[in-house]
Specification:
heterodimer; A: 293 residues; mainly alpha; Cyclin A, domain 1; B: 503 residues; alpha+beta; Phosphorylase Kinase, domain 1; Transferase(Phosphotransferase), domain 1; six-stranded mixed sheet; three-stranded antiparallel sheet; 20 helices; 11 strands; 35% helix; 10% strand
Chain lengths: 293, 503
């Protein structure tokens, strides 16, 4: 009896290089930031909603995939983020309520904007607008991804690999590798590599940072059919996350994006200044504190 | 992220160097413990402060000495390790050795583009632990749904509880397909989770006896979603309604084997179908059974989580579901398979209850009243106290199947076992002697054909000249003759009856 699997879609080089947003004249740098921001929101919202990590992981992969077939100018980070998390919660058999999800997003957006927290008006107009946007976003994700919404995740594989490498009892490696997996969701590695390679890469990286030597003759990763070059690449993507901080004024809705793009260069400069200020602020919604799971 | 200017490989070497002063000593030390975990780790966990103070010159010297060593012809494990460590990209770029800002390791990684070390021959002990994986097929492309306009609607086949099924033709290839339209109009919670499960399980469950889903297409509005499946001519329920005699034993066996094989595969992949019944079993004109309608299917896990007990069409619903259990498993499908088996043999539903109470009463009358002895845990089920007690202590199943062989009866009795934990599994049922005794299962290719209702074909009279149909046009045959008929086209292990035409 053969084991079945639904393999993850892997992008062609062309799809990766010429994203729909790029064709819509959105700067590459901004697209990267918006992707990360969207994933940040999904991960945080999932934690607040007490969803399993599988749901957040699936949602982030769906979010990343979606913006390789649709443009950020047509779909907002907020709506697709909500839609992806809602859909992923159902896919991972832990459905959340639309109302809860909208309230959490409202809270997170206000926090990101440094606005005082104010709950949405019950049955108010804003709520209904967000609800409609969420339902439409969910359908759009399904449609644009051809219903390929079942994502293979590397968590289980990684645990098995750790077992084979006899690393499960190590003090830091399993936790670190797990954290890297969570963080790697904010990058595009899930649309470039199969889960096995990603699982190897995070172990490789975690072992490297913990300064633990793994068998190199033969190289252990070859047994899991990973390539050194791919693992290095994935590690680079992950490490880059920690080097760059997100500005706090990124656009979340389509209107905001339009404004943002109007004087992109000016905003860029002010944004950079802002980053420097924010770096001292521990309460900001940057990537590092959000990985605690 | 912390600075990670040193590769772990390098650190081990450094530490050993400090202790032993010469790399040669390390050569003799490492092989002894090479498989132990402790040796994979560096001896001092993080003494990076002092290491970082190492001068470049010193490091250069170490590297040189390593190069010298592995230029020797020896091929000990440790040399290979050193060799690899030398090839390690981190060691090659000198900038890794400086205390670098956060971003720098990334740059270092990008510089290093050395090929991965070549695999070594003596890899047995390590590789043994990993199951060789089969070459993976090419990953799918990321493409959106096509439009329903790629298909031309022919006729409506049926309207199910939550969707309409159309027959349609693929405009590009001319193939006839079935389009199942999902009902989404009244959904308050976005895309229904049941449809997600259906799509998922159909994609997961690629099996010759499970209906093949081709793609999902969308209509003009977002609420028009169609699942495109292969068009299958018949469903077993309406087919049996039109047949005058039951399926032959050989045909029943073929159908059951195919059904069990599909169910075994689903269960093996942690999927419960939860709505097996004759109207969800499709039969094509090549004698192949296709399990369809995964609208209630879902994945289950271990340990079992609570699931709704309101599943499975009443007639095929297992007693534990009727008694309100929320933690059930694949055994509910096996009960349905038992009901289907009985229906195939007798050409009438085995337990056609009108209400849930009536359904339970019918089960109890057929199989006797369950008790704690034959079904431990029975009295603790939620509805166990609210059910009517039936004075029926013994099992009357045999009288319902007078013509079934001992093996056949044994199989249905095992499928209709009260205690879900004792009920036969699909895997076990496939090996049941019923399938290896005479009459043997009929080759699917030898199955009779019928006009397709869904295809809009008119049913002809049973006296049509096509040979296989004749078997079903005859008045009820006795068991022996069915055996013969089933065997006409088969080679039953030397027991050759020759060609007999029975009209």
């Amino acid at each position: 009896m053969s084991k079945l699997s639904l393999q993850n879609a892997i992008l062609t080089y062309e799809q990766l290089e010429t994203t729909p947003s790029k064709k819509d004249n959105i700067p590459e740098e901004l697209e990267d930031e918006l992707r990360r921001l969207g994933c940040d929101f999904i991960q945080s919202a999932g934690i607040v909603l007490r969803l399993p990590q599988v749901a957040m992981a699936t949602a982030q992969v769906l979010f990343q995939r979606f913006f390789y077939v649709a443009s950020l100018k047509k779909f907002s980070v907020r709506d697709i983020g909500m839609g992806a998390l809602f859909l992923a919660s159902k896919v991972s058999e832990s459905p959340c309520k639309i109302r809860d999800l909208i309230n959490v997003y409202n809270y997170l957006i206000r926090r990101y904007r440094n606005e005082p927290n104010e709950p949405l008006e019950y049955l108010g107009q804003v709520f209904y607008e967000m609800k409609d946007a969420l339902v439409i976003a969910e359908m759009q994700i399904l449609k644009k991804l051809g219903f390929n919404v079942h994502v293979q995740l590397p968590y289980g594989l990684m645990v098995n690999y750790l077992k084979v490498l006899e690393l499960t009892d190590h003090e830091t490696i399993p936790q670190k590798a797990w954290g890297y997996l969570n963080d790697s969701l904010r990058t595009n590695v899930y649309v470039c590599y199969q889960p096995a390679t990603i699982a190897c890469a995070v172990i490789w990286l975690a072992a490297r940072i913990a300064q633990v030597k793994l068998p190199t003759s033969p190289p252990w990763w070859e047994l899991f059919e990973a390539e050194l070059e791919d693992m290095e690449n994935i590690s680079r993507h992950i490490m880059r996350l920690y080097a760059i901080r997100l500005p706090s004024n990124l656009p979340l809705s389509l209107d905001e994006l339009e404004d943002y793009l109007k004087n992109y260069e000016d905003r860029r400069k002010s944004g950079i200044n802002e980053i420097n200020e924010i770096n001292d602020n521990k309460d900001d919604l940057g990537p590092a504190p959000m990985v605690t799971m | 992220m912390e600075n990670q200017g040193y590769s772990p490989v390098e650190c081990i070497d450094d530490n050993n160097l400090e202790k032993n002063n010469t790399p040669e000593v390390q050569l003799t030390e490492t092989p002894k413990t090479k498989t132990k975990k402790s040796k994979w780790e560096s001896e001092s966990d993080n003494d990076s402060e002092s290491e970082q103070r190492f001068s470049k010159k010193r490091r250069k010297k170490i590297q040189d000495s390593e190069v010298d060593e592995h230029s020797q012809p020896e091929t000990t494990e440790s040399i290979r390790r050193l060799k690899v460590s030398n090839e390690d990209p981190f060691n090659q770029s000198p900038s890794t050795r400086s205390i670098s800002p956060i971003a720098e390791p990334i740059n270092d990684m990008s510089i290093s583009s050395t090929p991965s070390p070549t695999p070594e021959s003596t890899t047995q002990s390590f590789e043994e632990r990993i199951i060789k994986s089969t070459p993976t097929p090419l990953p799918p492309m990321l493409t959106g749904c096509r439009s329903v306009d790629n298909y031309e609607k022919l006729n409506r086949i049926e309207e199910g509880a939550y969707g309409v099924v159309f027959r349609a033709r693929d405009k590009a290839t001319g193939e006839v397909v079935a389009l199942k339209k999902l009902k989404l109009d009244k959904e308050k919670n976005g895309f229904p989770i049941t449809s997600l499960r259906e799509v998922h399980t159909l994609l997961l469950a690629k099996h010759p006896n499970i209906v093949n889903v081709r793609e999902i297409v969308v209509g003009e509005t977002l609420t028009q979603i169609f699942i495109v499946m292969d068009f299958i001519e018949h469903d077993l329920k309406s087919l049996m309604e039109d047949m005058q005699v039951p399926f032959l034993q050989s045909e029943v066996k073929t159908i059951m084997l195919q059904l069990l094989s599909a169910v075994a595969m689903l269960h093996d992949n942690w999927i419960i179908h939860r709505d097996l019944k004759t109207s969800n079993l499709l039969l094509n004109n090549r004698g192949q059974i296709k399990v369809a309608d995964f609208g209630l299917a879902r994945k289950y896990g271990s340990p079992l989580g609570p699931m709704t007990e309101l599943v499975v069409t009443l007639w095929y619903r297992a007693p534990e579901l009727l008694l309100g259990t929320k933690k059930y498993s694949t055994a509910v499908d096996m009960w349905s398979v038992g009901c289907i088996f009985g229906e195939l043999v007798n050409k009438e539903p085995l337990l056609p209850g009108r209400t849930e109470i009536d359904q339970l009463t019918k089960i109890f009358k057929l199989l006797g009243m369950p008790n704690e002895k034959i079904w431990p845990g029975f009295s603790k089920l939620p509805h166990a106290k609210n059910i009517p007690f039936i004075k029926q202590s013994h099992n009357t199943l045999r009288s319902r199947f007078p013509y079934l062989t001992e093996n056949g009866f044994d199989l249905i009795a095992k499928l209709l076992t009260y205690d879900p934990s004792k009920r036969i599994t699909a895997e076990e049922a496939l090996k049941h002697p019923y399938f290896t005794e005479s009459p043997l299962p009929k080759d699917p290719e030898m199955f009779p054909t019928w006009p397709s209702k869904g295809g809009g074909e008119r049913r002809k009279s049973y006296t049509s000249p096509s040979a296989p149909n004749v078997a079903h046009g005859v008045e009820k045959l006795d068991e022996e003759d069915q055996t013969l008929l089933g065997s006409i086209f088969e080679n039953q292990g030397g027991n050759d009856y020759g060609f007999r035409l029975k009209i």
